[in-house]
């Protein structure tokens, strides 16, 4: 009876190992396809978008941006690959409205671009 018990444990361990070795490659192959849906563009009010816009405005104008708020979408294409946005910028106590766009630089690698008009001349 003891011999059967030892053999059963060995066969059970072998079976679990074989199933694991077959299952792991299946999961690895199937996972990228499950996540292969096209990535979404960053939203107008996301932190990374506002950081990009703030950095670009500071570099372009040479002024310190004290605040960037009230960001909202004004237009999104049907495919969702381009967004137009507006936001309010505060520089030295003066508010100005700026517009910017978000699109795909490299959709396959999920690399977006941000482009905008910059601060108005009077700012």
Can you put this structure into words, describing what you see?
The protein starts with a helix and ends in a 7-residue tail after the last strand. The longest helix has 33 residues, at 2-34. 39% of the residues lie in helices and 32% in strands. The mean pLDDT is 82. The protein folds into two domains: 1-37; 47-116. With 123 residues, the chain is an alpha+beta fold. A four-stranded antiparallel beta sheet has the order 1-2-3-4, with helices on one face.
Task: Kindly summarize this structure in a few lines.
The protein is of the alpha+beta class and 123 residues long. The chain contains two helices and four strands; from the N terminus they run ααββββ.
Q: What is the N-to-C succession of helices and strands? A: HHEEEE
SS strand fraction: 25-35%
Give the tally of structural domains: 2
The spatial strand order of the largest sheet comes to 1-2-3-4
Number of helices: 2
Q: Termini distance? A: 91 Å
Task: Determine the fraction of residues in helical runs and give it as a percent range.
Answer: 25-40%
> Strand pairing plus helix content: what structural class?
alpha+beta
Total count of strands: 4
Average pLDDT, all residues: 82
Oligomer: single chain
Q: Give the uncertain stretches in residue-range form.
A: none
Biggest pleated sheet: 4 strands, antiparallel
Q: Give the overall silhouette.
A: elongated
Give Rg in angstroms.
27 Å
Protein traits:
alpha+beta, four-stranded antiparallel β-sheet
Topology summary:
Blueprint: H1 2-34, H2 47-61, E1 67-76, E2 82-91, E3 94-106, E4 111-116
Antiparallel strand pairs: 1-2, 2-3, 3-4
